[in-house]
Specification:
Rossmann fold, GPCR_3_Ca_sens_rcpt-rel, single chain, alpha/beta, transmembrane helix, binds 2-acetamido-2-deoxy-beta-D-glucopyranose
Length: 862
């Protein structure tokens, strides 16, 4: 009660002190405390091997009252499999005993105990094997220091009893070799230093099973495990690896064969309610036996079973599976093997009968379904046993040899011990018999053993005491009359690199419900390209919805987690699985608008040329002469350029066309307007010249006119050159306006440049308009100023409307608007200034006289 401060160390110290005191006093004595245990099978020899097998697979569950000493465990359900294992051990022992090569002159004996698969009994048995406490010589006081009774222990079959035994004997370094305990936990040499086995660890099996499940694309599986070390550890590793391989478990349930039926009922309900079609079962054959009855009772068919080696190649399970629930199952088994002579030896059961052997009687009775000594009162009368029954013709799990690979494991284990002893006793023709055998040395020898069996199989252990991990992949293929073939469809070899470990042969597999198609077991179907996975809330990662990628995003693999955005020049296609180049939008010659504008431009050019031709033909006539023919031709020339420059706006923008566009337009228009301005000035001047005392005309003669046109144009040229040098327009792509189209356009480079060019044109146009407006009322029979005013009105109107349209309309429409403005204003000038004159020249030649030109007050022509 005093001791929460003084924990166990203090207590241990006290004990140690006590021991020291006692040992000083006298040699300690050992007393038999519990009830003695006698082995079920026993034979004396120079060297004795221990064996632990669960000849019974269950025991009667008893409620302990803690009022008296618990009764010994009452074992039930005789298990013939374990008799087979024991027979294999005896066979190996006898073979070695007979052999003159291995341990010559040394006779081997054995002590074999039944553990019933119970952990408590296993511990008891382990102590019995080490102490040899079966002799009752009450009140005996034997000295404590004596060698172990057995040199090595073969067994157990299941992992849980094996861990119990290995824990007990570990500190004494008594070697234990199991033929079927696969729990990966047993590889831990700090806990089980003396444990070895001839079956691969579940460390590999769980990995192999996970890879197998992954191989067939089952990402949504249920799991059933035996609630013992085998199932729990194996399943834990499986789940860990499965998670790495993106496999999800819908449920993972455990049960044990002695569980009450309501617990099993709950498990059945879980399976019934599940949506996964694949069940991974980490069960021993005994657990599967119980489970299969329950499943048959509930007609739970249609599931694809994936099994551990505990049951997958057990023909006994196949035999009781009358509803074909497990047909098509796939799983791992240890590779097929054969031990010659074993079957004949095994069938000879008589030698198992040592005198007064209760278990042998039970075995015999169960084997032949008869009874010795039947009490007449019992309700069901069975056949009487004669003791002369014959095994030939008996069909049960004792005569079934499908577990030969495991028998081989037992056989190899015994041989490993024999080889170790052989080298320890430095046997040549004879062995040194009087050597004191030390368990730790035997253990070291066994760990380093490397030999070949008579059937050519290599036996050795790695540093964890495990053999090399090789499995066959077994498929249950139903044949006629309900017989199931265990077809080997592949191999798993853990010693190879990860991608080669699983090697499925090209044989046709048969799946659940006799199907040729690989069953599908997924929580959600794969997300096709063009979609991405979105996990469902609160569900495992294998359950997800597929969401279509947004516009401009794609996913080009199945089961993509994200959608990737396309680069700026690209856009997603309709299926969202590829980026396609965006459609480039620009005003081209091919499309209707481009073609119309081109036609209009060419038409304008032709018309200008025609007018020029008419003027040239009639250059001597007064009307042409009167109207300052030089400027007129220059104007016609610049108008031609204006019409033509609109063509530079059509077509895919290039570096050159961008630079040309605005500058050519700016310069030709300035040239054009400066000509008009010149003409207006001439009209104004001419009027002033007619006034008396004016010699304005001298100051504004043809030379000055030419110069002023040149000068005005030069300013625009300089503006354009500056623009081109400082920040020229360049082709650019506009991604903003449309999501799925690229607008190819010319960026201005410098907005100032652009507006300066336009502004200069505007300035000249306004100036021209004002002059023309002033001159419009001047008396002249053919007053050009009126037409110029009108044309400038059109010009200004067009350009004023152009500006808002240009600013607001995106892409190619702004280009079209600009071209339209150019064409409209050019046509305006051409029509207003030249058509009336052409009309007179061509249709009213009578008016084309000098008199008419100069005549004042005469009838106006328009
Ligand atoms: C081993 O051989 C000896 C004789 O050499 C024999 O007495 C003994 O019974 C044999 N043991 C077994 C297990 O066969
Ligand atoms: C051992 O030898 C005996 C007699 O020589 C023989 O009957 C028996 O079958 C042999 N056992 C084995 C396992 O070879
Ligand atoms: C199972 O199926 C059999 C016949 O196929 C039927 O008689 C039995 O009632 C079914 N059992 C259950 C639990 O559905
Ligand atoms: C087992 O051996 C005992 C004595 O050796 C004998 O009485 C008994 O009948 C034998 N049992 C069988 C089943 O042969
Ligand atoms: C058969 O029963 C008698 C008495 O009922 C008993 O003496 C005898 O030992 C029993 N034999 C066996 C083999 O159990
Ligand atoms: C066994 O004896 C033979 C000769 O009888 C000898 O050549 C051989 O080296 C010996 N082997 C061992 C391991 O002592
Ligand atoms: C497997 O068999 C199928 C047809 O039976 C064949 O088309 C395929 O090529 C084979 N694959 C391999 C790897 O041999
Ligand atoms: C998927 O797209 C990426 C880039 O978007 C590309 O590198 C890859 O090759 C594509 N994969 C397939 C299978 O098309």
């Amino acid at each position: 009660m005093f001791l929460s401060v003084w924990p166990e160390q203090g207590w241990a110290l006290l004990q140690l002190l006590l021991v020291v005191l006692l040992s000083q006093a006298e040699e300690p004595v050992c007393r038999q405390r519990g009830d003695p245990e006698s082995p079920q099978l026993f034979k004396d020899g120079d060297i004795i091997l221990g064996g632990t097998f669960s000849f019974h697979s269950r025991w009667k569950d008893r409620q302990e009252t803690y009022m008296h000493k618990p009764l010994p465990l009452e074992c039930t359900s005789l298990n013939f499999r374990e008799f087979q294992f024991a027979q294999s051990m005896l066979f190996a022992i006898e073979e070695i005993n007979n052999s003159t090569d291995l341990l010559p002159g040394v006779s081997l004996g054995y002590k074999i105990y039944d553990t019933c698969g119970s952990i408590a009994r296993s511990v008891r048995v382990a102590l019995a094997l080490t102490n040899g406490n079966e002799i009752v010589s009450a009140p005996s006081e034997e000295p404590c220091t004596k060698p172990a009774q057995v040199q090595a222990i073969m067994g157990e079959t299941s992992s849980s009893p094996t861990t119990a035994i290995a824990t007990v004997i570990g500190p004494f370094h008594i070697p234990m070799i199991s033929h079927f305990a696969t729990c990966a936990c047993l590889s831990d040499k700090s806990k089980y230093p003396s444990f070895l086995r001839t079956i691969p660890s579940d460390y590999y099996q769980s990995r192999a099973l996970a890879q197998l499940v992954k191989h067939f694309g089952w990402t949504w599986v249920g799991a059933i495990r035996a609630n013992n070390d085998y199932g729990n550890n194996g399943m834990a590793t499986f789940i860990e690896i499965a998670q790495q391989l993106d496999i999800c478990l819908e449920y993972s349930v455990s049960f044990f064969r002695t569980d009450p039926s309501d617990k099993i009922q709950k498990m059945i309900e879980i399976i019934k309610a599940s949506t996964s079609r694949v069940i991974v079962a980490f069960l021993s054959q005994m657990d599967m036996d119980v489970l299969i009855h329950e499943l048959s009772h509930h007609n739970l068919t249609g599931y694809q079973w994936v099994g551990s080696e505990g049951w997958i190649f057990d023909s006994q399970i196949a035999a009781i599976d009358e509803h074909h629930i497990l047909d098509g199952a796939i799983g791992l088994s240890i590779p097929k093997a054969h031990v010659s002579g074993l079957k004949a030896f095994m069938m000879n059961v008589k030698p198992l009968n040592s005198s007064n052997n209760k278990m042998f009687t039970e075995f015999w009775e169960t084997l032949f379904s008869c009874k010795f000594n039947q009490s007449k009162s019992s309700a069901e009368i069975q056949r009487d046993c004669t003791g002369q029954e014959d095994l030939t013709g008996v069909q049960n799990s004792f005569t079934d040899m499908s577990l030969m690979p495991i028998f081989n494991n037992v056989y190899k284990g015994v041989y490993a011990v024999a080889h170790a002893l052989h080298s320890m006793l430095s046997c040549n023709k004879t062995c040194t018999k009087d050597l004191q055998l030390d368990p730790i040395t035997i253990l070291q020898h066994i760990q380093n053993i490397h030999f070949k069996t008579k059937d050519g199989e290599e036996v050795y252990f790695n540093e964890n005491g495990d053999p090399a991990a090789k499995y066959e992949i077994i498929n249950w293929q139903p044949r006629e009359k309900g017989i199931v073939d265990f077809v080997s469809v592949g191999l798993y070899d853990a010693s190879l690199s990860a991608d080669k470990q699983l090697n499925l042969q090209n044989t046709s597999l048969i799946w659940a419900q006799n199907s040729q198609q690989v069953p599908v077991s997924v929580c959600s179907e794969k997300c096709p390209p063009g979609t991405r996975k979105v996990l469902q809330k609160g569900k495992p990662v294998c359950c997800y919805d597929c969401i279509r990628c947004a516009e401009g995003e794609i996913s080009n693999i199945t089961d993509s987690v994200t959608c990737t955005r396309c680069p700026p020049e690209f856009w997603s296609n309709n299926r969202r699985d590829a980026c396609i180049k965006k459609e480039a939008v620009f005003l081209s010659f091919e499309e209707i608008m481009g073609a119309l504008l081109t036609t209009a431009s060419l038409f304008g050019t032709c018309m200008t040329a025609l007018v020029a031709y008419i003027f040239f033909r009639n250059r001597k006539t007064p009307i042409v002469r009167a109207n300052n023919s030089e400027l007129s031709f220059l104007l016609l020339f610049s108008l031609t350029l204006c019409f033509l420059c609109s063509l530079t706006f059509i077509g895919r923008p290039s570096e050159w066309s961008c630079m040309l566009r605005h500058t050519a337009f700016g310069i030709t228009f300035v040239l054009c307007i400066s000509c008009v301005l010149g003409k207006t000035m001439v009209v104004l001047m001419a009027f002033r010249a007619t006034l008396p005392g004016s010699n304005v005309m001298k100051w504004f003669g043809p030379a000055q006119q030419r110069l002023s046109v040149l000068g005005v144009t030069l300013i625009q040229i300089i503006i354009c050159i500056l623009w081109l040098i400082i920040s020229p327009p360049f082709p650019s792509m506009n991604f903003k306006e449309f999501k799925d189209k690229i607008i190819l356009e010319c960026a201005l480079g410098s907005a100032v440049g652009f507006w300066a060019v336009l502004g200069y044109i505007g300035l000249l146009a306004v100036l021209c308009f004002i002059c023309a407006f002033l001159a419009r009322k001047l008396p002249d029979n053919f007053n050009e100023a009126k037409f110029i005013t009108f044309s400038m009105l059109i010009f200004c109107a067009v350009w004023i409307t152009f500006i808002p349209a240009y600013v607001s309309s995106p892409g190619k429409f702004s280009v079209a608007v600009e071209i339209f403005a150019i064409l409209a204003s050019s046509f305006g000038l051409l029509i207003c200034i030249f058509i009336p004159k052409c009309y007179i020249i061509l249709l009213r030649p009578e008016k084309n006289t000098k008199k008419n030109m100069m005549g004042k007050g005469s009838t106006k022509s328009f």
